[in-house]
Specification:
Number of helices: 12
Family: Belongs to the NmrA-type oxidoreductase family. Isoflavone reductase subfamily.
GO molecular function: oxidoreductase activity
Number of strands: 13
Low-confidence stretches: none
Shape: globular
Distance between the termini: 41 Å
Strand content: 15-25%
CATH architecture of the largest domain: 3-Layer(aba) Sandwich
Protein name: NAD(P)-binding domain-containing protein
Mean pLDDT: 95
Order of helices and strands: EHEEHEHEHHEEHEEEHEEHEHHHH
CATH superfamily of the largest domain: NAD(P)-binding Rossmann-like Domain
Helix content: 25-40%
Organism: Oidiodendron maius (strain Zn)
Keywords: NADP, Oxidoreductase
């Protein structure tokens, strides 16, 4: 397929994204995406939500309340250039499919189909994490509909959420002041904060959509069609996280109950529990797999990052460690997905 250029488009074509719709704009990552989009001053942002929703939306959003199964959803999406879906990892798959199909009927060019985390190009990791079926089905559906392109955000696990989310995530229980090291605790992974995820999406959608012509080498949104955007706040091992925790809390190793477990055995135990119907084991399985010695969670070393291309902020580790500790101490995070 010939590469599209802005200069070849019909009169009236605007080479930028102006209208963005978000599902879940009052949620954990959705709120940060909405706020960062509004902060650019370049986008009209519409929150689409169910009539029964009680979520508090960021100021400045245009809010439309519709039933996701009705034709009103298609009407709400008409004229939008991007649909961003942010829902819980255990959200019904048919709900996301309904949204994707509605976006196609409304001729929305780009969809972010609720993929925030894993490197979607790492097939073994996605398969072992029980995510490959969702990835394959939703990406295939978008492609087969033949209208929209998908955009996937590879950001690793959310840092502050995962740090404060209990021992089954990054190994910390701040109330008990205990820390579980997976193997030797030296496997480095990429991890991102909610604000950086929001900034990444906002800056991505603030790029030109198409290159002006063959000579234009500036980054564009279209170069990411049907692929992943790789970002990261930090590349850290558990031991790196622990050093930050100790700085923030003013503690030493002697103040903590430290134990060791095999990441692979934790993953196997999680898989076995899931097969017996214990859905709470999903979190343990998901996070343990990321810390395998194969370093699948370190996509920075194998694929590089788009942080510089998107002009993303350089963040302070201890600042976000303090946020994660507070969230853990105040029970702000459910212990399972």
């Amino acid at each position: 397929m010939a590469k599209a250029h802005a200069n070849d488009q019909p009169q009236g074509f605007s080479n930028r994204i102006e209208k963005v719709a978000i599902i879940g704009a009052g949620g954990q990552v959705g709120k940060h995406i909405a706020e960062q989009l509004l902060k650019t001053g370049k986008h009209t942002v519409t929150a689409i939500t169910r009539p029964s929703s009680t979520s508090i939306m960021p100021d400045g959003l245009h809010v439309i309340r519709v039933d996701y199964s009705s034709d009103e959803l298609i009407a709400a999406l008409r004229g939008q250039q991007v649909l961003i879906i942010t829902m819980a990892v255990n959200a019904p798959r048919d709900t996301i499919s309904k949204l994707v199909r509605a976006a196609a009927k409304a001729s929305v060019p780009y969809v972010l189909p609720n993929w925030f985390g894993h490197d979607a190009a790492n097939n073994r990791l996605c398969e072992d994490s029980l995510l490959s079926h969702y990835r394959d089905s939703i990406c295939a559906e978008i492609k087969n509909l033949g209208v929209s392109s998908y955009l996937l955000l590879a950001c690793g696990f959310w840092y502050e959420f995962s740090l404060g989310g209990g021992a089954d995530r990054y190994g910390f229980d701040f109330k008990k002041r205990s820390f579980t090291l997976f193997d030797d605790g030296n496997v480095a992974i990429n991890t991102s904060t909610w604000p950086l995820c929001g900034q990444a999406i906002a800056n991505l959608l603030s790029l030109k959509e198409l290159p002006d012509d063959d000579m234009d080498e500036l980054p564009t949104l279209s170069q990411f069609r049907n692929s992943s955007i790789y970002i990261s706040s930090f590349r850290l091992s558990q031991r790196d996280m622990f050093e930050s925790v100790k700085r923030v809390t003013g503690t030493t190793d002697a103040d903590w109950i430290i134990s060791h477990e095999s990441a692979e055995q934790r993953w196997k135990d999680g898989q076995a529990a899931l097969q017996q119907g214990n859905t709470k084991a999903f979190t343990k399985m998901l996070y343990s797999r990321m810390f395998f010695p194969t370093s699948d969670g370190d996509y920075q070393s194998s694929r590089g990052l788009h942080n510089d291309l998107l002009d993303l902020a350089v963040e302070d580790l201890d600042e976000f460690t303090a946020i994660g500790i507070r969230m853990g101490e105040n029970d702000e995070i459910p212990l399972s997905h």
